[in-house]
UniProtKB/TrEMBL annotation:
<keyword id="KW-1133">Transmembrane helix</keyword>
<dbReference type="Pfam" id="PF01925">
    <property type="entry name" value="TauE"/>
</dbReference>
<keyword id="KW-1003">Cell membrane</keyword>
<feature type="transmembrane region" description="Helical">
    <location>
        <begin position="7"/>
        <end position="36"/>
    </location>
</feature>
<dbReference type="InterPro" id="IPR052017">
    <property type="entry name" value="TSUP"/>
</dbReference>
<feature type="transmembrane region" description="Helical">
    <location>
        <begin position="216"/>
        <end position="234"/>
    </location>
</feature>
<keyword id="KW-0813">Transport</keyword>
<keyword id="KW-0472">Membrane</keyword>
<dbReference type="GO" id="GO:0005886">
    <property type="term" value="C:plasma membrane"/>
</dbReference>
<feature type="transmembrane region" description="Helical">
    <location>
        <begin position="75"/>
        <end position="95"/>
    </location>
</feature>
<keyword id="KW-0812">Transmembrane</keyword>
<protein>
    <recommendedName>
        <fullName>Probable membrane transporter protein</fullName>
    </recommendedName>
</protein>
<feature type="transmembrane region" description="Helical">
    <location>
        <begin position="42"/>
        <end position="63"/>
    </location>
</feature>
<feature type="transmembrane region" description="Helical">
    <location>
        <begin position="149"/>
        <end position="179"/>
    </location>
</feature>
<feature type="transmembrane region" description="Helical">
    <location>
        <begin position="101"/>
        <end position="122"/>
    </location>
</feature>
<dbReference type="InterPro" id="IPR002781">
    <property type="entry name" value="TM_pro_TauE-like"/>
</dbReference>
<feature type="transmembrane region" description="Helical">
    <location>
        <begin position="191"/>
        <end position="209"/>
    </location>
</feature>
Amino acid sequence: MTGAEQLAVVGAGLGAGILTSTVGVASLLSFPVLIALGIPPVVANASNTLGLLPGALSGTFGYRRELREIPRAQTITVVLLCALGAIGGAVLLLALPSQVFATAAPWLILFTCLIVGVQPLISRRLRARSNHPSSEHPRRLHRSLSPATTVFTTLTGVYGGYFGAGAGVMMMAVLAVGLDLDLRVVNGLKTIALFAANLVAGIIFVFIADLNLTAAGLLAAGSLVGGYAGAHLGRRLPAPLLRALIVLAGIIAACLMLR
């Protein structure tokens, strides 16, 4: 890589780290940058997962105050389900022909853009549900996951291990629907759950997948700072402009990959 390309990857890591701890679409920024540098899609995806681990770790540390509000058993359950799902996703990525992922990637990005676009509607409905509990169904903190929440949490882990872009938004929706928690607390739980998923997938990729370690290292350097900064930003982020830019960037990246 040239010096300018290295700076671009570090910048993508910084931005992706911020997105990891906020809206949860980190790979939507960093993955297209690696593709633009000519890295093959499967190698780029595996390197991207490894490179964003420090961002998820620092983001988890940034949300430590929120995580203390959740029963430990509940946090452990969500983390384990997401990690187990990520094993399946990582295996799918490596077992299927690389052309399958190369073909699916732009459509997965467009699907992520759709999720990001409708996130305000989801958040408003979830916030209304949280702030206006029915007198017949008083607000309470679920201390165990329902079967549906368990299934969808695991499936989100599978998606995170396979591709990951938009997994944070999906996890936010699943956990906010299935658990009576404030959205800021859900953001923290989402961050640690996806850290577990990326950690498991990253370990598998280190031993089995082809990696671009230079790209992964540069992403790691940027995401470490971005993840911690994003945790503080995530507590007060209105993000309408940021969301619009994410959707626009995703559509452009997908269109370029479809050419």
